[in-house]
Amino acid sequence: MGLLDILLGRTKPVAPDLDRLFALPSAAVALEAATGFAPTGQGAVCFATVEGAAFEQTHREVRALLDADTDREGPPVDLRRDEYGYSWLVSRRSPEQVPELVNDLHAVNSSMEVNGFGPQLLCSLAVFRQPEDGRSLALVYLYKRGTFYPFAPLPGAGQRRDNPLELRVRAALDGDLPMERDLGRWFPLWGAPGL
Q1: Of 26, 62, 153, 167, which one has the greatest count of Cβ atoms within 10 A?
Q2: Whole-angstrom Cα distance, residue 58 to residue 75?
């Protein structure tokens, strides 16, 4: 970074570090101990919608890669589009298979990155649920920042979130995950798969 960049307030973007996803299994244990939210086994990778043969080829490669895992029921990955125009590759595992879910998310991100779709990657998430009341929570990995944040929609409240819970989760996981410090980047993920 040069002097002109410093004077103009420009910064270099953080290089994505997909290996940070591998901290999720231990963070899931800490999250359950601190808040009672348990893994659901569902996760997803969100990206700006891509059309064309190159993306279809990448999608087939991801399916083939994840299909090689015979310890799974149903399709390895499901492609969805949300009402905001973003695409989600969704993976489902049993709740105790958090490491395998993380491997799936890492494989999807890596395949997209290797095939030139890294700029379209937005985030990955793992979904958790509280057994007592069924509330949902996602731990969201921001691809371009290399950090995590919690997203907790309030059930039955429209598009409102449980900010106190999100802050409690951040405090509980601060030593386990690189948490996003800028609260302005804790984007709401309305309609995300599993929430």
Answers
A1: 62
A2: 16
* Orientation of helix 98-112 relative to helix 24-35, angle to 10°: 130
What the block records as the tokens of 110 is 């890596």
In whole angstroms, give the CA distance from residue 12 to residue 111: 24
If residue 6 lies in a helix (H) or strand (E), which one and from where to where?
helix 3-8
Q: CA Rg, the chain, in Å?
A: 17
Q: What is the dihedral of CA 24, 50, 63, 108, to 10 degrees?
A: -20
Dist. CA 58–CA 77, nearest whole Å = 12
Task: List, as one string, the DSSP characters of 96-111.
Answer: T-HHHHHHHHHHHHHH
Q: CA-to-CA distance for 190 and 195, rounded, in angstroms? A: 8
Taking residues 134-139, what's their average pLDDT? 94
- Whether the per-residue pLDDT at 10 is higher than 80: the answer is no
Model pTM score: 0.86
What does the alpha-carbon distance between residue 188 and residue 153 come to, in Å, rounded to a whole number?
8
For residue 94, CA distances in Å to 40, 59, 74 come to: 7, 23, 11
Instruction: Name the percent of the chain lying above pLDDT 90.
Output: 56
